[in-house]
User: Fold this.
Amino acid sequence: MAIKWMMAALGLGLAGAALAQDAPMFGGDEDQAYAEKLWQAMVEQNLAGEGAIMSFPYPGTDPHGMMLETFYARATIDGHDGALVVKRNYGPEGVTVDQVLGMPGEHLGALTVMFRREAGYDAETGDWFYAKYLPDGSLDQNPNGVALAGLVGKNAEAGCIACHQNAGENYLFTTEAEMR
Ligand code: HEC
Assistant:
């Protein structure tokens, strides 16, 4: 009732109702807290934050970035050990390898991460947890202000899972490895 009234008051009408119904299944408190632990685990392994190790960046495209780095690692979160894939996304368009290597901090746009959670987290999509961080470790948000952490883009037309489900059984574009 209250929500209906608020939407009417805001003049959202039917379009607003449709939006509310499609409210995403990610980005809540639990997902945000989990993403924070994951960020800490990455910082501890020097995969994120100041002093992060570098690899040789390679050219990429939308939506990830004009130059990319990908790291395959593992992390333990709440006692669960799982595969961790970290992608660093650099820009802007036209940025060169030398610029990225010389001043990575100046060119880093975001870190997009996949972590394989415990079996049963979301068996249907391979139990991957998704997160998109800004370089300072805070979570990026979608246009509706929802934090990009958890099952982002599940049953949706856009978003991490909507696209990564096209990558094959393991949900990874860059490797055929199972990565459990
Ligand atoms: C429109 C499609 C698309 C969307 C949306 C997308 N990705 Fe990707 N992602 C890709 C492609 C293509 C690659 C391979 C890029 C490369 O060449 O390294 C990739 C690579 C990755 C990788 C490296 C592992 C792999 O798959 O090879 C991670 C981690 C990742 N994406 C995370 C995310 C997260 C987190 C989101 C959501 C915030 C997201 N992606 C949204 C297409 C997408």
Summary: Residues 1-18 have pLDDT under 50 and may be disordered.
